[in-house]
Amino acid sequence: MPPVNSKYEWPYPVAKRFPGGFERFSYRTYNWFENRLWPVRPLPFLTATAAATAFQVRDIGLEGIRENVHKLLKPLAISVGSVYTSVFLFRHFLKYFYFSYKGYLFENPKKPSIRTIIWGVLRKVLLAVAPPQLSSCDRLLPNLPLPALQDTVDRYMDSMKHLMPEENYVELLEMSREFVAKEGRSLQRYAWFLHKFTDNYVTSLWETYIYMAGRYPLLINSSVAQCTMYGPSDLIQAYQVARLIYIETIANLALDRQKYMAVGDGIMSTRHYKNIYNGCRIPGQQYDHFQWNKPAKHIILVHDCTWYKVDVCDANGNLYTVDQLAKIVAEVMKRDDKSKGYLRNIASLTTDRRTEWCANRQKFFLDNKHNRRLLDCIETAQFVMSVDGDLNWGVETTEQLSNYMKDMLAGSGANRWVDKTMNYAVDASGRAGATGEHSPCDGAELDHLCENVLNVDKQVLESPSKERQLEIIQMTEEEKKTLKLAEKLGFQEVDGMETEVNRCFEQHLKASDDLHMHSLAFTDFGKGRVKKCGISPDGFLQMAIQLANYYDQGKIVLTYEPGSVRFYANSRTETLRPVTDASCNFVKAMMNQEATQKERRELLKKACGDHVENCKQVMTGNGIDRHLFVLCVLAKGLGYSSPFLEEYANQKWLLSTSNIPNMTNSVDEDTTEDKIMLGASFGAVAQDGYGICYRFAGNRAIMVHITSYHSSPATDSDRFGQHLREAIHTLADLFDEEPSNNNVSKNNNVSKNF
Prior knowledge:
Elements: H1 21-37, H2 42-56, H3 61-67, H4 73-98, H5 114-129, H6 149-160, H7 166-181, H8 183-197, H9 203-212, E1 224-226, H10 237-256, E2 280-282, E3 289-291, E4 298-303, E5 306-311, H11 322-333, H12 354-366, H13 369-380, E6 384-387, H14 398-410, E7 422-426, E8 432-436, H15 443-460, H16 466-472, H17 477-482, E9 487-488, H18 497-514, E10 515-522, H19 527-532, H20 537-553, E11 559-564, E12 573-576, H21 581-591, H22 597-619, H23 625-638, H24 643-649, E13 655-659, E14 680-682, E15 690-697, E16 701-709, H25 717-733
Helix pairs in contact: 2-4, 6-7, 7-24, 8-23, 10-11, 10-15, 20-21, 20-22, 20-25, 21-22, 23-24
Domain Choline/carnitine acyltransferase: 144-726
Organism: Caenorhabditis remanei (Caenorhabditis vulgaris)
Pfam families: Carn_acyltransf
């Protein structure tokens, strides 16, 4: 194990060996029982069963048991049945009281109800007696509730009244009434059956029709970028690559053992964590599917557009150390076996539309025995690691940060195997980021992963001096014999491959050129100042976005923000609609020169309060959009014609936003600017809209990444970034007696510096 800073601990156990088949079978079997018995552990369960059996046969004696082994069967069956019945009943009590109770969300924490107090005591007891593993409680989570049809339609109509002309709203209102009275009732009955016979009536349909049915290219349209810290790296490129490979191999094995931290102490779904490593999205003619694979002993390394297989352990299963991996990576970087011609861009085939990529995958890989083996090597790998060139990183200008973030989202067209869940990238400066494939898991899981990586990389592990790193990466002749060096994946040329590779590469470059990224590293203040104002940080920034958009577009538009429903089994996300009566009143007051600061401040508090209340409603299963989405799918599948659902399905999310949560609080971003995490980004959903991803970097910064498309005359990410910076200051100034000197007029140019 590399040197560890004694002030910090690994967030999961550190394996030294790759598990063999029997070992993996053993711990997976144990976890299978754990997940069906918790809060009782498998060993206490077996002990209680054995004791109950022994009590029943106490009069037979050992000799009697040896002579009549069959006499044990009945007592054993009675013991197993009685002990498990007790566990079963207790687990059902936990499911329908402990895990289903959400009343504490709506109470004053200083004046909790008796039921909340009992719930809190039970939680402390459970955590003390049987602290859950990652998925110990997953089978105890309640099913996602199905809202009443009328309630969903009413909430939807209420959310739309500020987003369209009055005559259009009246027409939509009439459609909604006809829908509830006619086809809506039938569709709701089908949704009820789906709700009763599945643990989550949304997820399977959501994954199929929102993700797997999509025929568009994944990069920019579906992928997400996860990035590193704001500060400089103290590692050279080869050593940073090796360290990330080591850290993520340890994390992969810990996740397979179920030793990752239980999210929310077990009260949140962790169903999709298993999809982070090893798996791969497989293209299909009409629908893709996700292929889950067991932990692999190799990763894929990409250097200078050439693909390599790198083993993470030796022939005996002993994991390579960081130093050993650094030697292997450095050896690859010195090779002269780089791919030539169009084969350098072979990964661009994965950036294509899904139907076309399916056909090319069959023709160029599956139908060719050699290429099929290489494809299997890539698709079963833990992850892909790209060793990139100089991305001209810097924190001197917005342009440099924006270019870096754009590269993390879109890649070069040749250095991402888009189907893999995680594609890491380390540039020449030693900074690391990643491109994530969104279909198998959501942002929260990817954020959890990245926070653990940054915690271990920047805090837990100590860094040798750069001089020492340069010594470490030198490989002796003896090490060349003992270490397994990287294997180049030399693809064979197939008729028609060159034309398709060139087409896909040029197509991706065109899409990448159209992407307009503006990264705003707002370091004037963070959530600390917002909390002092007595309002929600997320509500604060959502209202700033609404105000900035009004500056930019002169109107209020349909806005998307993902909300968590992870209190429920097999859940993903729900839509939190930030546009409310209160938010619109606030924006109007900000544009009204006659409104006083006090009036604006009170309206902001009301808007943020309503936003928090809406968030709680979403968290407890009372969202709008996933219910309507399911009804749309059912209507399509069952042949129902519904003008109301067609109108709903055609709505355009001109503002698509996302707040990156802090999952672990393991990195103290207030200690130094170098520990600020940049966060994530994604492409705008609408061609003439914006994609805005943000996170509060402790009390000292707000990181925002804004995307749009150059081809749209209606949007400009740089312009929106200027408006958002002004809006953030304007909102904060509402709580100051005097306006801050940092307030910027929306007519001024944005500062070149952060």
